[in-house]
Structures are given as C-alpha cells and as structure tokens.
Design a protein that fits this description.
Elements (H helix, E strand, L loop, with lengths): L4 E8 L2 E8 L11 H22 L5 H19 L6 H9 L6 H22 L8 H11 L38 H13 L8 H15 L6 H15 L11 H6 L1 H14 L2 H39 L5 H9 L5 E3 H8 L3 H13 L4 E2 L8 E3 L1 H8 L1
Antiparallel strand pairs: 1-2, 3-5, 4-5
Helix pairs in contact: 1-11, 2-4, 4-5, 4-8, 6-7, 7-8, 7-11, 10-11, 11-12, 11-15, 12-14, 13-14
The protein binds adenosine-5'-triphosphate and magnesium ion.
The site of adenosine-5'-triphosphate has 16 residues, from α7, α8 and α10.
Length: 382
C-alpha cells in the first residue's frame, strides 16, 4: 500500500495526539498510473470544452456568470451547513429584508473572496495562486460575525482536528501548526512547477484539493477555501474561460463519499479513487451547467417572444427584460436606476412585464412594491 504521509505524536490540551503530516505531491511509490485517470480526464476536459462552447452561444455571458458564481457560493456554504437559499441571496442583493442575515453573509463573503482571487489572477500585477492570496481571500471569507475568533486571514497557530470532541478521539488530526507554512510552500511549488509535474491540470487540481484539506491550514473555512482553490486552479490553467461551473453541487450531493474519499487518501493511499471521483464530478457539474445555460436561454427567448408580440411592449420593457437575469428580485426604483429613466417610465415597463406574467409582485401593497422573476429563479434553484 502506498503511504501518503507520516504520523507524528504531538501534545495538545495536555494529551498526546497522533497528527498526520502528508508527503509532498505528487503521489509516489507507486506514482499515479496514467491508465487510472486518462479516460475520465478526457471526458471531464471534453465536458468543460462543451460548456465553454455553449456559453459562447448565449447573447450575454454575464447572465450565466451571475447565476453560476452565486450557485457555487451558495452550495459550498451549504456543505458547511449554511441555511441560506438562492432567493435569500437575490433578496439581499436587491436590498430586501432577509431573516437569516448571518447565513447570507457567509455566502456573500464567499463571493467577495472569490472575486478577490479572480481579479488577482487576471491582473498582470496581481498575486498568483499563493499562500498570501489564499490568506487574503480567507480574511474576506471569515469577515463578520461568525468568523470572529477564527483568525481570519491567518494560518492557524494551534492544533486542530476533524470529527470528535478533542484531538484524542478525532477522525483526523491535521499536521501540527508549526509544519503548516512549509507544507503550504510545498503545495505552492507543486502548483507552479509545471514542467516537473506532467500530470493533466484537472488531475493536479484533484490532488491539490486533498492536500489542502489534509493540511487544514486555517482554524475554520478550510472546506470553502479548498473548494475556492478548485475554481482558482481552473482559472489558472485556463480550463474554462469563465467560472461557469459549480462543482460544489456535486460535492454536496455526495458529501459522505466526498469526506470518505478524502480520508481514504490518507488511510489507504487511495489517490486513484479520489481522482476518479473528482473527475466524474467535474464532468457531471459541467454537463449540469450546460443544461442550465440552455434552459435559461430558452426561458429568456420565450419571454422575449411574448414581450415582442405584445402591443404594449416598448423600448424600456425590452431593456428591462434583458436586465432581469442579473437582478431577478427588484424594486421599481432599482429599475429606474438601471434604465436611467424617469420613475413613470420604469414603473410602466415593470407593469408591462407583470401584466404578461413574466414578473410577479411580491408584497400585495400599493407602494414599496417588490418584484420577482419567478420562472427564472425556479429554474436556477431547481
Ligand atoms: N476526513 C477528512 N479528511 C480530510 N479533510 C476532510 C475530512 N472530512 C472533511 N474534510 C474537509 O474539511 C472541510 C471542513 O473543514 P472546515 O470546517 O475548516 O471548513 P469550512 O469551510 O468551515 O467547512 P465546510 O467544508 O463544512 O464548509 C470539509 O469541507 C472537507 O473539505
Ligand atoms: Mg467549518
């Protein structure tokens, strides 16, 4: 059996614990056999290429990105137990009152962290994928109520553990804190040393996610940071021109298997099993994103046809319809700002769409009304 690390004894909370220190990537003795991943890797790369192709056929890729990034933010936070929904997130962005503000904050924090990483990777002078960039992103991820006391933006300085009530009875005890900086430096080298690592980028991404979770460098937020790292690596290696895929949907759906396969790398040396699971997830997530794009485009086309066929449609309502995928919950004032029109113009445009049943009013009030693009939200949430 292949060994993926060594177990060392350290003392925490006055009792000896067996902490796991992973070997540097890639897997060795034996190395990953190309036959074990070649077909699945090819299928996953093809699925990503198709997704990129389909996205290119849609009038505005911003629509697709708007929803895909939010779905990833939501699903990755739901793995952590966040109760927020897509509607909560849209409501928060529309300035409506949401009840579970802490949950929604976690999701919006993920969005901020993700944007920071993406901007940084796209700016010529920005930081590459690095410990510093991950710490900066972590600071945003754990900003606010829940992150307080969890050392946002800092590598941990104490021993942590996964499962159990204390390190002594934990499922897994990650490396002692003093080993974390070196282990992360090794991971950083693996990411950037392309020539020495001829593995396909998706396979490397799979390995890197496990290594990150095994190091568990932060006090909290390691799952979300490790999944953000997946998105960052897709960007870094140009596997997808835009972050259109939400792989956390697959990981959430198979959460038990996800955790079990992470463990099996450590306990059984089973890298192949994890890589196969991950590649399958990428292929399925890409296919799902593709189906979603087709469905959104079809819905918009159908609503556009109805609007164009209506004698009451006009320029303002046409423009409003094209804005809806990026503001599915809204007020008339927000429409007025986006259209840069008068209030009566905005109000009339909304009324046209409401009378056609494309959008629905939510409050039943005469003033302070708010609206929803119901069919679109149902599609995304489905
Ligand atoms: N047995 C395991 N071995 C290694 N890593 C694991 C194991 N079980 C879970 N993990 C990883 O640890 C993460 C949880 O760690 P942590 O609580 O620091 O992250 P989080 O982002 O706050 O939580 P979450 O993953 O629940 O969103 C899981 O998401 C998973 O990626
Ligand atoms: Mg957590």
């Amino acid at each position: 059996m292949r060994s993926t690390g060594t177990t060392i004894t350290s003392t925490t909370l006055g009792e000896p614990v067996r902490a796991f220190v992973p070997h540097p990537l890639p897997p060795a003795d034996p190395p990953l056999a190309p036959e074990s991943f070649a077909a699945a890797n090819h299928a996953a790369e093809m699925a990503l290429a198709r997704l990129a192709g389909v996205a290119g056929l849609v009038p505005s890729v911003d629509w697709l990105l708007y929803s895909a990034i939010r779905k990833e933010a939501l699903l990755t936070s739901q793995i952590e137990g966040t109760q927020a929904t897509l509607v909560d997130l849209f409501d928060e962005e529309a300035g409506f009152t949401v009840s579970n503000t802490d949950d929604v904050e976690e999701v919006t924090n993920y969005l901020r962290a993700f944007r920071l990483v993406q901007d940084s990777l796209r700016e010529p002078a920005g930081l590459p994928i690095s410990v510093r960039l991950l710490c900066d992103a972590h600071r945003l991820l754990l900003d606010g109520v829940r992150g307080q006391g969890k050392q946002p933006g800092e590598l941990r300085r104490s021993q942590n553990w996964i499962g159990g009530t204390r390190p002594g009875n934990a499922v897994f005890v990650p490396p002692p804190p003093e080993r974390v900086p070196d282990l992360l430096a090794g991971l950083e080298r693996f990411i950037h040393d392309g020539e020495a690592q001829p593995l396909p980028p998706l396979v490397k991404t799979a390995l890197i996610h496990v290594q990150f979770e095994t190091i568990h460098p932060f006090l909290d937020g390691n799952g979300r940071m490790g999944r953000l790292l997946i998105a960052a690596l897709l960007e870094h290696w140009g596997l997808l021109p835009e972050p259109l895929m939400y792989v956390s949907g697959y990981l959430k759906q198979h959460q038990k298997e996800y955790y079990r396969r992470l463990s099996n790398v450590r306990t059984e040396g089973d890298w192949e099993g994890w890589v196969a699971f991950f590649l399958e997830g990428v292929a399925l997530a890409a296919q799902e994103a593709e189906r979603n794009i087709v469905a959104v485009a079809a819905l918009l086309a159908q609503d556009r046809r109805r609007l164009l066929a209506s004698p009451r449609g006009g320029m303002a309502s046409y423009r409003l319809l094209e804005l809806l995928p990026m503001m599915p919950r809204f007020t008339i004032e927000q429409v007025r700002q986006k259209l840069d029109s008068s209030f009566p113009t905005a109000s009339a445009a909304v009324k046209v769409l409401a009378d056609l049943g494309i959008v629905s009013e939510l409050t039943g009030q005469k003033t302070h009304r708010s609206y929803s693009y119901v069919a679109y939200i149902a599609l995304l949430a489905g």
